[in-house]
Each structure stands twice: as structure tokens, then as C-alpha cells.
Amino acid sequence: MSNISFNKISTKAPKSFDKEKTKAKTVKLLQELDELQNVLFAENKHSVLVVIQGMDASGKDGAIKNVFGTLNPQGVLVKSFKAPTAEELSHDFLWRVQQHSPAKGMIQIFNRSHYEDILITRVHKWCDDKTAKLRMKAINDFEDVLQTHNNTHILKFYLHVSPEEQAERLTERIKDKKKQWKYNAKDFDESKLWKEYMNAYEDAFKNCNKPEWIITPADQNWYKEYIIASELHKLLTSLKMQYPGIKK
């Protein structure tokens, strides 16, 4: 991926996309994904790692629930990466991530991921540029090992939300009783560092781009979910999987 500028990328669906028609397409994709996931699990030759990154309130939790929630829970795992524990900090930065890489037949979702160690850490100056570059190389090596040695296929989504939409969603967490449990006053402090985060993301995408990131407009949940479902469907279909026969 060449240099990108988020200022030049829309956070909304193209005008040619109709909301209701797109939602209907998503329903059809999810129905077909159910069968594709069953074959993935039964064939036990491939695995899928889905990395979902994005600013606070970009809709990571909702995307996971609405796209992957209809699949067989025996074949889908979700790992949310919060602030590292004391034990995790005593190891190398990839230690806590490596143990959650997907086994064959499985779809593993990372809600935030190893990329946090070159994002929030750089924004807050916990990690200098030299260390960040070394971590980017380690990330590339880690993802390469997954792809070449374990037949793991990686989809990396960046949920591209606008500052205005983020502000509206964060405020909604205060007013809506069903969402108040998500409220964290620190989110508003982090939002003030928008420019710094965009710089960190753009540099990460420039240096860790195999496979390339899928920039996913996230101001409209229906379009965001369609993109994620569509990309997963495209990937699983391309694997030409088959149910195994009777074991002899």
C-alpha cells in the first residue's frame, strides 16, 4: 500500500449504494457464510485471522456481533486486546497475541490487535520511532509465518469513522442507558489526539501491508457490515474448499 491520507477517503458509502438493497445483500452473504464456515471447519486445512482496528466508537463490537454472530460459535473465536497486564508486559509485545493465532478450521477475530503496540504506544510516546520500526518488522514476520507456515488467511479491516460521527457516538454513550456501560471518560481525551492517531495509522499501513488493509467506511453501520461480510465471503469462496469424505 502506498502512502494514504485519511482526509481523502470518505467515511460513508458511495452514493450508488442503496441502504435497504445493501442490507438485503448482507443477509444473503451471511447465509452463505454459514455454509462456507462449516466447510472451513470440516476440511480443517485453512484458518482465518480477522483483524479489526479503529478509533473508539468506530463500531468494532457491533461489526463482530452482526457479521459473525450468526456463524457457528464452535468455529469462531474472538479475542479483545485491552491494556496489557503486568504479566504480558514482562514478555515481548507479540507474546500475548501469538497464543491466540487461529488453529486450522477456525476463524479468529482480533478486536484491536498487535497493531496497538505501534499505535497508542506511539501516540503517547511510550514507544519511540526506532522501536516502532523494529516492531513493524516483527509484525510483518509474524503475519508471514501465519500465512506461509499455517495456511492462515488474514483480513485486516480499519473502520474509518469521521471525527463528527465519533463525537456523536461517544455522546450517545452518556445519554443512552443501554450504552452507558461503554462510557469511558478517557475516550474523549483520546479523541483530542485524532491527528496523532491518524499519523500513526497511516505509517502502520505504509509499513505493514501484506496483506493490505481494507479501509472500511464506518459512519454507516449497514455499509461497514456489508464490506466485512463481502470480503470474508470472497476469501472463503476463493479457497475452493470441500467437505472431506468418510475417513478410512
Keywords:
Rossmann fold; globular; 248 residues; 5 strands
Describe this structure in words.
With 248 residues, the chain is of the alpha/beta class. It has one domain (17-238): 3-Layer(aba) Sandwich (Rossmann fold), CATH 3.40.50. It is 48% helix and 13% strand. The protein has helices spanning 19-43, 60-68, 86-89, 95-98, 120-123, 129-149, 163-175, 185-191, 194-207, 221-238; strands spanning 47-54, 76-80, 107-111, 152-160, 213-217. It has a 5-stranded parallel β-sheet, sandwiched between helices. The model has no long low-confidence stretch (mean pLDDT 96).
Condensed summary:
With 248 residues, the protein is an alpha/beta fold. 48% of the residues lie in helices and 13% in strands.
CATH superfamily label: P-loop containing nucleotide triphosphate hydrolases
Strands of the largest sheet, in order across it? 2-3-1-4-5
Task: Tell me how many strands there are.
Answer: 5
State the low-pLDDT regions, or none.
Answer: none
The chain-level mean pLDDT equals 96
| The level-1 CATH class | Alpha Beta
Number of domains: 1
Roughly what percent helix? 40-55%
User: What's the CATH topology name?
Assistant: Rossmann fold
Query: Helix tally?
Result: 10
Cα distance, first to last residue?
47 Å
Strand fraction: 5-15%
Q: What string, H for helix and E for strand, traces the elements in order?
A: HEHEHHEHHEHHHEH
Characterize the main sheet.
Answer: 5 strands, parallel
CATH architecture type: 3-Layer(aba) Sandwich
Spatial extent as radius of gyration = 18 Å
Structural class: alpha/beta
> What is the 3D shape?
globular
